[in-house]
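User: Design a sequence. Structure:
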């Protein structure tokens, strides 16, 4: 148990069982060390006699036998009534430490008795009996290890009296196991609260995998039940829970402020009142001795609500183990807040992050990037820059879940890595699909201009008013919008190092829009009163261009779903290519028909030139759409082969 930090929190009551255990062990050690003192004196004054062998006693008390043997064998006299022995000064210090451990336990369980024992030890120290030196008088050894018949005090008598008090205290701290927790001196009605806490702990304990921690101790202190858990291995990382009737108080300490805030955030569904994060200092805790303390108070209306909060507290602890390590690794790939958000999601979903760390952590993601996207994601580049924020967060969540599921099921690391790499490929394909969606949007803009041309010519055919300036202005706005979209799309292609075919598709559709916008401008200049045969030929050509734009948009939309493995979408996209080529051939025929009618009709120069230029601009647009179709076929076939 992390007794130093628990004492710092003013919760020493829960330490009594461990203090008693340590004190009883110290009592055993003192016996061996006093025997070693006597054996050293015997060896020094009677070197011809065989030395005492305390190996069995040493091992039983947890003392290294070699050091004691060296002390006894090396003892010799240095004058009348004095001996010298190697490591004798350390032995004297160890004896003093053992007595101090016994007094500490007595103070925790019976403060008045503890103060009395402490005063007796101070008196013995003042007399010089416990002076630490490699040289000692035989008479001092006798006083240390013997018990006088009169009422005078001695170290041996003090140890005996301490042992009696410790035995009495130990009888009131008999240990039992409740749902996996080590408990001492509980009342029958305490068991339900301990079991509730342990139920939550056991629900998530397996998510720590091979990491140590989560040992729980509970004891009764007056009118309060105390539950303590060490969490992980960090010295100042503990939680102490106090239960009094249906009120629960959680005292949590951490060397990481961010993790303490994260812990509090795990209890949003409970109306607990949490203190601020106070900074404290204690020698020997963390690198600088600083830690943060937060206290939460939850007043339950019923025992059921109390037990639900205790269970939630137990379940939350596993998600704190190595939390800061996981956060640092994740923020190499996404923003800091998103890294914390991912860990919060992992806790709520009971996924955790320990499996991710055990399987390699950052190297797990790095390997996926190297294998699945060596040319798409540069060294040191964050995933949210390559995939976009939402996709990057989703991929990392999937990585944590795949790691936990794989390690829990005993799958090979290779298999888990393959799953993560496959998911990264899917996210990259979705990025490509997002870029293709931009192309679909551009094709829609081409369709808008083509449709406007169709309506304009139809109005002229029907003798309705047709505002050419309005047509040209609208087409100009659409073309400018398409240019802005194309620039942004090209930047994304460059940033993401996407398939170069995507940029070529963007170029072809932009060129088609430019030609259609030019056609709209020329249409606005055509003199009124065109011959019906010319309007009919132009109407047929405009309809062909409109059908080509529709085919480009629908084919591109189908192509965005090809990476998902939808065969029907691949077939639709390839069928569109045929339609675009057919539209280009039909436009050639229509454009020649217009040319033939112009040369055969004897029209004036303005009409002839405007009609010819209009037809040629529309035909050039269908040429660009046909080129778009060939690129679309290449893109689809590449995805199918992959």
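Assistant: Done.
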């Amino acid at each position: 148990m992390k007794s130093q930090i628990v004492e710092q929190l003013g919760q020493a009551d829960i330490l009594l069982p461990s203090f008693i255990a340590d004190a009883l062990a110290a009592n055993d050690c003192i016996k061996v060390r006093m025997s070693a003192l006597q054996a050293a004196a015997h060896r020094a004054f009677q070197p011809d006699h065989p030395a005492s062998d305390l190996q069995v006693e040493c091992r039983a008390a947890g003392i290294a036998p070699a050091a004691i043997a060296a002390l006894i064998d090396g003892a010799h006299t240095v004058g009348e009534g004095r001996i010298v022995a190697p490591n004798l000064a350390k032995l004297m210090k160890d004896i003093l430490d053992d007595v101090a451990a016994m007094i500490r336990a007595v103070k925790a369980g019976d403060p008045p008795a503890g103060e009395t024992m402490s005063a007796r030890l101070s008196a013995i120290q003042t007399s010089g009996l416990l002076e630490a030196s490699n040289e000692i008088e035989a008479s001092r050894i006798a006083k240390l290890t013997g018990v006088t018949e009169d009422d005078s005090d001695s170290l041996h008598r003090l140890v005996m009296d301490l042992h009696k008090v410790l035995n009495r205290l130990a009888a009131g701290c008999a240990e039992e196991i409740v749902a996996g927790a080590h408990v001492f001196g509980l009342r029958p009605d305490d068991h339900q609260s301990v079991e509730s806490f342990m139920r939550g702990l056991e629900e998530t304990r397996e998510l720590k995998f091979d990491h140590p921690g989560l040992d729980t101790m509970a004891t009764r202190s007056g009118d309060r039940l105390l539950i303590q858990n060490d969490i992980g291995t960090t010295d100042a990382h503990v939680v102490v829970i106090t239960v009094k009737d249906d009120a629960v108080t959680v005292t949590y300490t951490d060397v990481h402020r961010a993790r303490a805030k994260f812990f509090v955030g795990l209890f949003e569904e409970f109306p607990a009142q949490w203190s601020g994060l106070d900074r404290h200092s204690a020698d020997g805790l963390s690198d600088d001795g600083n830690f943060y303390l937060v206290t939460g108070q939850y007043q339950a209306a019923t025992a059921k609500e109390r037990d639900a909060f205790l269970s939630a507290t137990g379940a939350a602890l596993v998600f704190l183990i190595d939390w800061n390590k996981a956060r640092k690794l994740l923020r190499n790939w996404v923003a800091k807040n998103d890294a914390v958000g991912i860990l919060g999601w992992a806790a709520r979903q009971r996924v955790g992050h320990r499996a991710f760390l055990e399987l390699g952590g950052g190297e797990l993601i790095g390997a996926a990037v190297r294998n699945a996207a060596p040319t798409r994601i540069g060294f040191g580049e964050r995933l949210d820059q390559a995939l976009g924020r939402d996709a990057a967060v989703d991929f990392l969540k999937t990585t944590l879940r795949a790691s936990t599921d794989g390690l829990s099921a005993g799958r090979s690391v290779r298999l888990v890595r393959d799953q993560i790499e496959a998911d990264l490929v899917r996210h990259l394909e979705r990025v490509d699909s997002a870029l293709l969606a931009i192309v679909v949007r551009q094709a829609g803009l081409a369709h808008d201009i083509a449709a406007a041309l169709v309506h304009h010519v139809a109005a002229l055919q029907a003798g309705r008013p047709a505002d050419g300036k309005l047509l040209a202005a609208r087409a100009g706005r659409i073309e400018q919008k398409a240019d802005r979209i194309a620039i942004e799309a090209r930047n994304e292609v460059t940033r993401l190092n996407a398939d170069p075919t995507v940029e070529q598709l963007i170029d072809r559709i932009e060129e088609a829009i430019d030609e259609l916008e030019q056609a709209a401008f020329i249409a606005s200049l055509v003199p009124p009163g065109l011959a019906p045969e010319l309007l009919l030929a132009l109407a047929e050509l405009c309809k062909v261009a409109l059908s080509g734009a529709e085919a480009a948009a629908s084919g591109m939309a189908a192509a965005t779903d090809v990476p998902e493995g939808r065969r029907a979408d691949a077939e639709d996209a390839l069928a569109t290519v045929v339609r675009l080529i057919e539209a280009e051939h039909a436009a050639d025929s229509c454009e020649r028909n217009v040319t033939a009618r112009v040369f055969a009709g004897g029209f004036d120069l303005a009409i002839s030139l405007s009609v010819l230029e209009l037809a040629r601009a529309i035909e050039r647009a269908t040429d660009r759409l046909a080129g778009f179709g060939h690129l679309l076929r290449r893109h689809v076939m590449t995805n199918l082969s992959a």
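The CA atoms of residues 113 and 553 lie 90 Å apart. The mean pLDDT is 86.
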